Amino acid sequence: MSETKPSSGPVVALGATVVIWAFSWIVMKLAMRYAGPFDFSALRYALGAALLFIVVLVLRRPLAPPPLAGTIVTGLAQTAAFQGLGQWALTSGGAGHVVLLAYAMPFWAVLLAWLLLGERPQCRHWIGMALAAAGLVFVIAPWHGLGNPLSTGMALLGGMCWALGTVVSKRMFQRHQPDPLTFTAWQMTFGALALAVVAFLVPQRTMVWSPAFIAGLAYSVILATSLAWTLWLLAVRRLPTALASMSSLAVPVLSVLMAWWVLDEKPLPNEWLGMGFIVAGLVAVSGVTIRSRS
Q1: Cα(28)–Cα(14) distance, rounded to whole angstroms?
Q2: Whole-model pTM?
Q3: pLDDT for position 291
Q4: I want to staple 274 with a disulfide (CB 3.0 to 4.6 A). Which of 138, 145, 168, 267 is the partner?
């Protein structure tokens, strides 16, 4: 049986999402010149959630929140912890280095799905995790003295929290089948509230409302949060799961190249090698194979 060729619309949406999310890490790094990590993250997701609720109303989707327990946990893990820790890591680490570590999320998701959902890893998952572990060792490069251990630890912990949010949201869809846009808007709201509390409690640099900061905030809110999430939902609902999941491979790689171009963060040889191992591991975990045409 021949596979149906994906329509061009969702493919374009998927490609746009990858580019927007990849560049968002560069924007987030630049935003740290004008605001603290938690102030910026809280503002970004509060405004992003508001825009998503407008989309929900325009599309006449259900407005009532999904079951609160799973929605709150997802918001705390996937929005508040991942974004807050990732933004914090950027204050002392390079954008390319941070995004490589944060996007090891699929490997943590495999382990958490085994523990929380009873989804036992297959052989390809173990191979992928072994490759990823090797890649992370090369990216962290402990033989160079760990560089900035705080930034490295925050990026890795952020990826773990993202994985937890992914597993919890999967359980939510299995048990309650919430509307994706409504669920995203509500979990983002709870995440923004948590980030606002942290921003109030943790001393940070004074926010400077410069044109550059406003432009970066607009990019993060309108493109990276609201538009990209909407495009992502369009893509994952109409494309094969394996194809959509492969998009995560391009985000960290593209971010590294963008950081090299925009921020002059030239990847070290060990980071190139680590990136290769991580990409190979993600391919193994996704289960996607490259088939030659006969």
Answers
A1: 21
A2: 0.78
A3: 43
A4: 138
